[in-house]
């Protein structure tokens, strides 16, 4: 009864407090005595308190604190002085800060669009493979980047991208000498090069998640599509794609957040350079906080980034909920 | 469904209450604004006889065996003091030092990468009483300039002393002796123009004239040297480094220096992928023979000598006019005494010891790769003849007397290096900015950093 009233795919609670409340709500719905309902509802609230307390202390409070800091000029240690809207104005007037946000959106193409697209293709192919050594190997190979720490991935790719690295060796081997370059040191190619690292990391995650989603699609649907004479492509658009709506929403949401809030790969591979070509808000916030000790400015940029992420994520979530 | 709405209402009420509580309690974040410096404790040069654990926090890597050795020497002299060396990597220490010193478990001596707000926030002890007690004021004073901080807590080069160190870094130009011979270099270039001719000869001979790590700021060294050479003296740059009011590098010397560096980049005197070479790869490439010249610092010298003894030389960056003064960038490996240290007197004794003791000064060169300064009559450390280390030590002694030591522009403000100098130099080498725009941009970033 409870399970049936809960929409599919929300079984894994992202926020414990909300899930507890949702459950409590469902339970009381089934009760018919108003007095009992009232008593139960209060006791249910009691169950929420510990989770909500933790959530409040470790998530809500720091968030509100960041908002508060963003209106101060503070070095993190000494006295703070009110700064009004200066920190917020700087985001829109300092070209380097706004440019970093733009770069984050360029990374969305590499962290989200390409991995989700390629992930769909890969998952569709792997689905058709008979379960066996090859299919397992394919999954493992695609998923391994997800297991590696991003810092390690960044270092490994830095070597591959260097003048004598693997990428240039391959180009030379196939006679494309004129295209070799120090990829991460090239003003035009540094950001796409960082983006490709993102593709490599995110592709495995998307493929595995989408494969799991495909596994849940009723095989009868595929059979029906075949009987109706649908080819591979038709089958993909008629059955696979609609069946993966929720998984696609999760993939897109997760990877967009990873793109907009990226830090590790950039910090390790390019430190924002050459010039300002790969600077992203994550690295800016880190530098502002720990190097420049401008906690107020860093907080303003962090809150701004969080709002940008929410604004981008929100319509995607809506899309996932529609019937 | 009604109960859900009911819950939502409750939740909203709780939320409003939480925000209200926060706003009510919201005073400005951070500490209180106590005025004035930390009252100096009565300084004493006595170490006593009670057992004292002296805790050092230094940077990871070569610093650990170096300070451990210094600690052993100190323990040998003062048996009741046991030196314990802890370490954090440079980047971590830079980002956590303020928190560490504000906490309860502070070290007695800490490697200070940058003074930043440490003095303004009263986290470091003023060493003035010890300067007096140990007679450091009779030593050449240029060695202490970079760690003096004025009463405003920002301007350096004047005011109270907050850190001192065992030894100094020093920049110049390394050269590969064999390759230099091949291009007919018989003596270090006397002028910038002569240096440029050598670069052209190297290029013609099919060699890589200069190796540099443009990815993390190695190309800023020759640029700063060019600026000083063209200016004829280091005053403007030094004022700028110490954030003296009105200091500016948006001037003709900077534009000329940037023009020269850009020209060198275009002519292929710098590696085509300079912006992708970091500080690990550059010395490795230079050792391999990729590069006749390598503008860098004395911290490279021990490794160069170890890998290929006697094969690498070192000279100071040439002046613009023959016979003009030479300059080099320098920075001390500074140690400060945290304001909360329980053993400040012993810590100060250790600082005096590492600058004056003969064995300690020898270890500073041998293990630390740094040049000790100290008093004028201090024992000079011995170095193998013809080694790169010997060349750097000699150059330092010469500059200490001629007042030719200048701080790194990178240390002017906390972020000028990563946010301005490095990216702007990269853009300069890539031809994406002009020398004039370069000078103006670095200056405006600097002024913004300082809130001017």
UniProtKB/TrEMBL annotation, chain A:
**Topology versus the membrane:** Multi-pass membrane protein
User: What's in the GO CC field?
Assistant: plasma membrane
Alphabetic keyword roster:
Cell membrane, Membrane, Transmembrane, Transmembrane helix, Transport
Q: Which residues form a coiled coil?
A: none
Q: Where are the transmembrane segments?
A: 44-64, 102-126, 138-160, 189-212, 248-269, 298-316
Q: Mind telling me which SUPFAM superfamilies this protein's record contains?
A: MetI-like
Which cellular compartments is it found in?
A: Cell membrane
* Matches recorded under Pfam families: BPD_transp_1
PANTHER family, alphabetized: ABC TRANSPORTER PERMEASE PROTEIN, INNER MEMBRANE ABC TRANSPORTER PERMEASE PROTEIN YCJO
Name of the protein in question: ABC transporter permease
What species is this protein from?
Answer: Sphaerisporangium rufum
From TrEMBL, chain B:
Q: Tell me, what is an example of a GO biological process annotation in this record?
A: maltodextrin transmembrane transport
Q: Which Gene3D superfamilies match?
A: Periplasmic binding protein-like II (3.40.190.10)
User: What do the Gene Ontology cellular component annotations say?
Assistant: ATP-binding cassette (ABC) transporter complex, substrate-binding subunit-containing
* GO MF, any single term: maltose binding
Signal sequence segment: 1-28
User: What's in the keyword line of the UniProt record?
Assistant: Signal, Transport
**UniProt superkingdom:** Bacteria
Under the heading Pfam families, the entry gives: SBP_bac_8 (PF13416)
The Swiss-Prot or TrEMBL record describes its family as follows: Belongs to the bacterial solute-binding protein 1 family.
Instruction: Give the protein name, as stated in the record.
Output: Sugar ABC transporter substrate-binding protein
| Organism per entry | Sphaerisporangium rufum
């Amino acid at each position: 009864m409870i399970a049936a009233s809960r929409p599919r795919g929300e079984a894994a609670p992202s926020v414990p407090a909300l899930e507890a409340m949702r459950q409590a709500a469902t339970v009381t719905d089934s009760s018919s005595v108003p007095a009992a309902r009232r008593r139960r509802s209060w006791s249910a609230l009691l169950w929420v308190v510990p989770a909500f307390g933790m959530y409040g202390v470790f998530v809500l409070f720091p968030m509100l604190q960041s908002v508060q800091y963003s209106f101060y000029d503070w070095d993190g240690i000494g006295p703070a002085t009110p700064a009004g809207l200066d920190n917020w104005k700087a985001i829109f007037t300092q070209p380097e800060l706004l440019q970093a946000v733009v770069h984050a959106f360029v990374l969305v193409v590499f962290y989200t669009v390409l991995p989700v697209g390629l992930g769909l293709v890969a998952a569709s192919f792997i689905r058709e493979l008979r379960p066996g050594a090859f299919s397992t190997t394919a999954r493992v190979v695609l998923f391994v980047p997800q297991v590696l720490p991003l810092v390690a991935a960044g270092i490994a790719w830095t070597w591959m991208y260097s003048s004598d690295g693997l990428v240039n060796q391959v180009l030379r081997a196939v006679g494309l000498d004129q295209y070799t370059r120090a990829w991460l040191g090239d003003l035009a190619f540094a950001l796409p090069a960082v983006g490709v690292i993102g593709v490599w990391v995110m592709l495995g995650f998307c493929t595995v998640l989408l494969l799991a989603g495909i596994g849940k699609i009723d095989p009868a649907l595929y059979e029906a599509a075949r009987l109706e004479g649908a080819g591979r492509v038709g089958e993909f658009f008629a059955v696979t794609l609609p069946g993966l709506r929720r998984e696609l929403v999760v993939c897109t949401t997760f990877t967009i957040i990873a793109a907009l809030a990226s830090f590790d790969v950039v910090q390790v591979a390019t430190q924002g350079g050459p010039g300002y070509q790969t600077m992203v808000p994550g690295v800016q916030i880190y530098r502002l906080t720990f190097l420049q000790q401008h906690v107020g400015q860093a907080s303003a940029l962090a809150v701004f980034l969080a709002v940008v992420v929410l604004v981008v994520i929100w319509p995607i979530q809506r899309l996932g909920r529609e019937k | 469904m009604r109960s859900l709405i009911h819950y939502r209402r409750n939740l909203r009420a709780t939320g409003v209450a939480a925000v209200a509580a926060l706003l009510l309690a919201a005073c400005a974040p951070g500490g209180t604004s106590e005025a004035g410096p930390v009252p100096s404790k009565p300084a004493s040069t006595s170490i006593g006889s009670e057992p004292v654990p002296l805790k050092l926090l230094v940077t990871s890597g070569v610093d650990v065996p170096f300070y451990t050795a210094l600690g052993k020497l100190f323990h040998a002299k003062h048996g009741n003091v046991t030196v314990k060396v802890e370490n954090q990597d440079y980047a971590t220490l830079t980002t956590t030092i303020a928190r560490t010193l504000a906490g309860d478990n502070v070290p007695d001596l800490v490697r200070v990468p940058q003074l930043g707000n440490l003095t303004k926030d009263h986290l470091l002890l003023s060493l003035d009483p010890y300067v007096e007690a140990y007679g450091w004021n009779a030593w050449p004073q240029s060695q202490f300039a970079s760690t003096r901080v004025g009463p405003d807590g920002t301007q350096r080069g004047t005011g109270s002393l907050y850190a001192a160190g065992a030894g100094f870094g020093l920049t110049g130009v390394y050269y590969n002796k064999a390759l230099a011979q091949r291009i007919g270099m018989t003596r270090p270039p006397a002028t910038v123009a002569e240096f440029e001719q050598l670069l052209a000869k190297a290029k013609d001979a099919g060699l890589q004239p200069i190796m540099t790590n443009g990815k993390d700021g190695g190309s800023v060294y020759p640029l700063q040297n060019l600026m000083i050479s063209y200016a004829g003296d280091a005053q403007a740059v030094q004022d700028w480094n110490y954030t003296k009011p009105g200091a500016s590098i948006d001037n003709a010397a900077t534009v000329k220096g940037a023009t020269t560096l850009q020209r060198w980049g275009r002519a292929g005197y710098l590696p085509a992928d300079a912006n992708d070479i970091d500080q690990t790869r550059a010395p490795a490439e230079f050792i391999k023979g990729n590069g006749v010249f390598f503008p860098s610092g004395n911290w490279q010298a021990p490794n160069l000598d170890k890998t290929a003894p006697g094969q690498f030389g070192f000279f100071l960056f040439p002046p613009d006019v023959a016979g003009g003064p030479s300059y080099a960038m320098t920075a001390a490996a500074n140690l400060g005494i945290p304001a909360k240290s329980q053993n400040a007197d012993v810590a100060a004794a250790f600082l005096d010891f590492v600058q004056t003791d003969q064995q300690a000064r020898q270890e500073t060169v041998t293990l630390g790769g740094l040049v000790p300064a100290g008093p004028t009559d201090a024992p000079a450390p011995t170095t193998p003849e013809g080694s790169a280390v010997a060349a750097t030590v000699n150059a330092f002694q010469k500059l200490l007397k001629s007042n030719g030591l200048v701080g790194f522009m990178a240390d002017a403000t906390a972020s000028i290096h990563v946010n301005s100098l490095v990216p702007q130099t990269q853009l300069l080498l890539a031809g994406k900015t002009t020398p004039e725009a370069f000078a103006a941009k670095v200056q405006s970033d600097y002024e913004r950093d300082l809130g001017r």
